[in-house]
Specification:
Distance between the termini: 41 Å
Structural class: alpha/beta
Shape: globular
Helix content: 25-40%
Radius of gyration: 19 Å
Order of helices and strands: HEHEEEHEHEHHHEEHEEH
Length: 236
């Protein structure tokens, strides 16, 4: 095991990694822990009782965080004509069609999210092997294949987060920055948790949410009470 640095060693002394915390206390502890030299992301991990190999147990969606992510998100839009202009006015960082496709095929992927109008999916489809593994392929179910490109861009810029269950049955996401105040961090966490809970597949019987943990980019991980966070999220 790698030797812990002074900051992380000090952080571990402020918490009990075996304890299951309620959300309020966990957020307070993360805020009070020794800080890194940058504004760390607060990260949530939710372990679900699903088998992602089964099509009817795939958990995937988007959620708008009420206080944003704290990150600058670069958005690419595949569109032409008036829709391309709408995307630019809405704040898209990259807008194009075949020219943007060529840029991506050459290995330049200078964006975090990708949106496309339906008529451009023939072009975007040629990028499946490039964008797919990176989770960047536009998807109509996630609102990223749409004629309303302006709103799609604005939503992403405002703090919309995509989530998708991984092979081990876990959903991870960044839900803000440690510099946010406690109330904003908690509000973002509950918005995300609520979305994942609502996305429970009908085929899942019994316990759906098995475990929850919170951490910061270079900080300690804390176990969160499942009944506590489920209760708070359902009350929103």
């Amino acid at each position: 095991m790698a030797k812990l640095g002074k900051r992380l060693t000090a952080a571990y002394k402020t918490v009990d990694i075996q304890k299951v915390y309620e959300l309020d206390e966990a957020v307070k502890l993360l805020k009070a822990a020794p800080k890194a030299k940058f504004d760390e992301t607060v990260e949530i991990c939710m372990a679900l009782n699903v088998d992602p190999r089964q099509a009817d147990q795939m958990v995937r969606g988007v959620v708008g965080l009420p206080n944003g992510t704290g990150k600058t998100v670069r958005v690419a839009v595949f569109a032409k004509g008036p829709k391309a202009e709408e995307a630019k006015k809405a704040g898209a960082d990259l807008v194009g069609a075949e020219d943007l496709m060529d840029t991506v095929l050459k290995g330049t992927i200078d964006f975090d999210r990708c949106i496309a109008t339906p008529d451009m999916m023939g072009v975007v489809g040629r990028l499946g092997k490039v964008l797919g593994p990176r989770g960047l392929m536009p998807n109509p179910k996630l609102g990223s294949v749409t004629m309303d490109v302006a709103n799609a861009v604005k939503n992403v810029k405002a703090g919309q987060v995509e989530y998708r269950v991984e092979s081990a049955g876990q959903v991870h996401a960044g839900v803000g920055k440690i510099s946010f105040d406690e109330a904003k961090i908690k509000e973002n966490i509950l918005a995300f948790a609520q979305a994942v809970l609502k996305a429970k597949p009908a085929s899942v019987k019994g316990t759906y949410l098995k475990a929850v943990s919170l951490s910061t980019t270079q900080g300690v991980g804390l176990k969160i009470s499942v009944p506590n966070i489920a209760s708070l999220a359902s009350a929103k």
